[in-house]
Amino acid sequence: MTCKISLCLNDEIYSLDVDADWTLLKVIREELRLTGTKEGCGEGQCGSCTVLVDGKPVNSCLVLAVDVNGKSVMTIEGLARNGKLHPIQTAFIEKGAIQCGFCTPGMILTAKGLLDKQPSPTEEEIRLEIAGNLCRCTGYAKIIEAIKAAAPLMRGKAHD
Q1: Is residue 82 part of a domain?
Q2: Which of 51, 52, 122, 149 has the highest local Cβ count within 10 Å?
Q3: Can you give the pTM of this predicted structure?
C-alpha cells in the first residue's frame, strides 16, 4: 500500500509516495539520497541512524515514514547553515571526537537534541543522553568533551 506524505526535511518541504512499511531511514537514504544518516544495526540499538523529528532525537530505522507526515525532520546535512558548521560540529572537530565517523552524524544530532532542551548539561546528563549511540572507536571521552565545549557556544550564538 502506498501513502502520500509531506515532511519538512532540513527546512525544505518534500511530498512523496511511500510504501506503508518504509522506514524514515529508507526514505532519507534511498528516496531523498541523503547519506549522512547511517544504517548500523537496523534495530534501534546503535544510534547511527539518529535524526531529529520535531527537535527530538529518534532512531530513523524504527520510525515509519508515514509517522513523520507533517513533521519537521533534521539530518546531519541540515545542521550547517550558510556554509558555516554548527557549533557542535566545530566542537567535535576541535576536540578530536571523530575517528571513523560512522557514529558521528547520530552522535551530533543526539547532542543537539540534548543541548536544545538542556543548555548546560552535566557530564552525567551527557552520558545518559548519548547512551543509545554506540561508538567503537573513541571511548566516548572526546565526544563528551566536545558536547561540553559546544554547550557555551550554543548559548552564546543564535544558531539552529
Answers
A1: no
A2: 51
A3: 0.93
Q: Which helix (H) or strand (E) holds 26?
A: helix 24-26
Residues in contact with 95: Cβ distance below 8 Å, sequence separation at least 6, in sequence order: 142, 145, 146, 149
**Cα–Cα separations (whole angstroms), residue 135 to 10, 20, 33, 107, 139:** 25, 31, 24, 9, 7
- Split into its structural domains, the chain has a count of 2
Q: Assess whether 96 and 142 both reside in one domain.
A: yes
Q: How far apart are CA 79 and CA 159, in angstroms?
A: 9
Say if 59 falls within a structural domain.
yes
Question: What is the Cβ-side half-sphere exposure of residue 128, based on CA atoms within 13 angstroms?
Answer: 8
- 65-75 pLDDT tens trace: 999 999 999 99
- Which residues constitute the domain of residue 56? 2-77
